[in-house]
Amino acid sequence: MRKALAQPHTKQFLKFAVVGLISFGIDWGMLIALVELFHLDFLMSTTISFITSVVVNYWLSMKYVFDHREGMSRKREFTIFTILSVIGLGLNDLYMFVGVTFLSIGYQAMKPSPRSWSPGTTTLAVAFSSRARSRSRFAICLNV
């Protein structure tokens, strides 16, 4: 077990997981606070919380998880990150809109939580993100 934990990829994965949990906490906490305390629309709150968590995720990932790739400029890394994040935001908002508006499911249940990971956008975003990482060699955490 110690040997496995000492591997560079294992350490990177654990850092990746911690950053993802922090980002999820920000996303979830802001969503609830914006809707319940500030009485903002659930879709506006979803968008604001998602964007905030993605910015924090990017900063933490670049600082603590991933090394800069020599063959790729920071501008290109950020462009790829932004494109994938916009796709994730679109999927996230669509998922929330359909679930809350058409299926009459509470917004809290539509956002995945650690206790009950909901399928849908999370699964799609993870699959898309994994494919994009292997293609571009740029690792990104999409918190959808």
Description of the molecule:
Helix content is about 75%, strand content about 0%. Helix 2 (about 10-35) runs antiparallel to helix 3 (about 40-65), helix 3 (about 40-65) runs antiparallel to helix 4 and helix 4 runs antiparallel to helix 6. By secondary structure, the protein is mostly helical. The protein has helices spanning about 1-5, 10-35, 40-65, 75-100, 105-110, 120-135.
Q: In a few lines, what is going on in this structure?
A:
The chain has 144 residues and is mostly helical.
Helix-residue proportion: over 70%
Overall mean pLDDT: 78
* Number of DSSP strand runs: 0
> What fraction of the residues are assigned to beta strands by DSSP?
under 5%
Radius of gyration: 16 Å
Poorly predicted runs are 113-131, 133-144
State the helix count.
6
Secondary structural class: mainly alpha
State the major sheet. none
Shape: globular
Q: Note the gap between the termini.
A: 31 Å
Q: SSE string, helix = H, strand = E? A: HHHHHH
What is the strand and helix layout of this fold?
Elements lengths: L1 H5 L1 H29 L5 H24 L8 H29 L4 H4 L10 H16 L8
Any descriptors?
6 helices; mainly alpha; 144 residues; globular; disordered C terminus
